[in-house]
Amino acid sequence: MMKKRLETTTAPGAAVPNRLASALAVGLSFLLAASSARAGLKVRPVFLGGAPPADECKCGGGPADKCMAGGGDIQEIFKVAAESWERVFKVGGGQWDVTIEFEWGNQFPATYGKEEQIAQGGNNPVRITRSTVQFNNNPLTVDPFCYFADPTPRDSTEYRKFSSHLLDEIPLTAARVFSEATGDAANRIDLLTIATHEIGHALGLSDDYVGYRQRCSGLCFLTVTAPRPFAGFVIQLSRTVHFEQEFYGVLGSEPLMIPKPVAGVRQLISGIDALTLAELSSFGKPNLDGTLPPPW
C-alpha cells in the first residue's frame, strides 16, 4: 500500500571532398537539431463542439445557479491541460503525437468526462495516437456539483492554498493540489482538472491500449522499469484504470488519475501520475518535478 506525507504547502563509400563533407555535416547537424526540437509529446486538440451545460442548474439541491460558472472557454482550458502534459514528456522518449478530439455531450452520464481510444500506432513502442474525449454537459447526472470554467486557466489565483504530498516509500509526489477555492471555483468541479485527467487517459491509462493490456489485467501491480526513475517500485492501479482513491488518505489530496474529482479542488499532475504513464507508454525520461503556474 502506497503512503504519502505532506511535503510543502505553498552508409560507407568513397571519400568526400572536404567542402562537401563540411556541407553534409552542417546539414546533418541541422536535421538532428530539428529532430531534437520535435522530440517529445505533442498533443493536437480538435474541438468538435456540442451543446455546453445549461444556463441554470440546482447545484447541490439549492437555489438555481449556473451549471458552469467562471466564463472560461473549454478550448483554452483543454489547450492549457495539454501543455501541462507536454512539459512532462518534453524530451527523452522520442517523438510522440496524439490527436485528441473533444466535445460536449451526455453519452456517458455517470462521468464528468470520458476518454475513448480511436487509434494506436508506431513500433517499439506502440502508443496511442488518436482518441476522443467527451465532457458531460449535465454534471448533475454525476454529483450535485456544477462546473468551474476558469477564465484564466494559466494561473490558479482562485485557490488560497497549494499542497504537495510525497510518498513514504520514495521521494515522489503522490499529489499536487490547490484547495480552499474562492468565488466561482468554490464548491465546484474544476474543468481544468477534468481536461488534464482525460488527456492522461489518452496518454496510456486506457484499457484498450496495448501498453496497458500487456502489463495489467484487473487489479494491476505495475513495476517501474529502467531507464525510468525509481526502477523496481510497484504502482498499484484499480480495475477501473485509475489509482485507488482510498489509498491516498485525505479527500482532496490524491493523484490526478483517481476515479472522481473533488469539488473546490484543482488537481495537478503529480510525480506518480507522470511515472505511471511513462511506464505504460515507454517514455524513458519523464519530468517528475512539476512546476506551479504563475503567480505561485
Q: Specify the biggest β-sheet.
A: 4 strands, antiparallel
Please state how the strands of the largest beta sheet are arranged side by side: 1-8-9-13
* Helical segment count: 5
**Overall pLDDT score:** 86
Query: Beta fraction of the residues?
Result: 25-35%
Question: Which class best fits the helix and strand makeup?
Answer: alpha/beta
- What is the number of independent domains? 1
Compressed to H and E, one letter per element, the order equals EHEEHEEEEEEEHHEEEH
Radius of gyration: 21 Å
**Could you name the ranges where pLDDT drops below 50 across 5 or more consecutive residues?**
7-37
Inertia-based shape: globular
Helical residue percent band: 10-25%
Distance between the termini: 32 Å
Name a few traits of the molecule.
single chain, 296 residues, alpha/beta, four-stranded antiparallel β-sheet, four-stranded mixed β-sheet, globular
Question: How would you describe the overall organization of this protein?
Answer:
This protein is of the alpha/beta class and 296 residues long. The chain contains five helices and 13 strands. It has one domain (41-280). A four-stranded antiparallel β-sheet has the order 1-8-9-13. A four-stranded mixed β-sheet has the order 2-4-6-5. The protein has a three-stranded parallel β-sheet with strand order 3-7-10. A hairpin with a 5-residue loop joins strand 8 and strand 9 (173-181).
